[in-house]
Amino acid sequence: MKTDKKQNTAGAKSSAKFRKVCWVLVSLTAAILLVIVLLLYKPAGYSCPEVIGADSKNREVSSYLTHELLPQIYNGAQRAESFDLLVSQKGINHAIAGSTWPKEYDGITFLAPQVFFTAEHIVLMGTANLGGVEFVVSVEAEPAIDEQGMLNLRVAKVMVGAVNITPLARVIAQSSYRKKLEEKGIAANPLRAKIAASLLNNEPFEPVFKVPGDGQKVRADKITITNGKLVIHLVPVYD
Question: Is the pTM of this model over 0.85?
Fold first, then answer.
């Protein structure tokens, strides 16, 4: 009898351990599947990059840049007074799509991204292909001009699917920035260097830009972002 009881007790313990192991395995599997689903999540409003982009054989400089955006800047600067530069979400996406896509960096292929202007935010969404698996990457920036008139293009959030990877992305971005500094390649274009330092290393810079065509300089002193459009208030600068 005692032997039977010991066997029953041992059997019960063994059964309990087995159920526990099964529960852990099921939980881990569910967690992994959930992570995969979150990583593969595609945000509402994001459409397939292939639909946006033009045929690579027929690519040309965006008419939005040449016929709308650049004339706004040039004509505004010629008046020698402050003016508003209006950047439309539709127009900037047309310009992006007209570039050469896909692009490849470090073994990751990026398809044509989309820009969304929302209240006080600029959101860039694009598809990254890694080993045949596609993920939607979202980068949310909060451009702002401080009291000293310095512009910072602070990256507030980085998402892969529905997974927030902002802390990891900051570490990677800062490491990449330091590497580029060591290679001295980032300083080839002063404006790009300032933008990179702001985006990757949270460094503000003086928002003074040369107007294409005549060398006139303008300063951005206010940025307003609403749904579908970005408005930059520009003031002429005289040396």
Answer: no
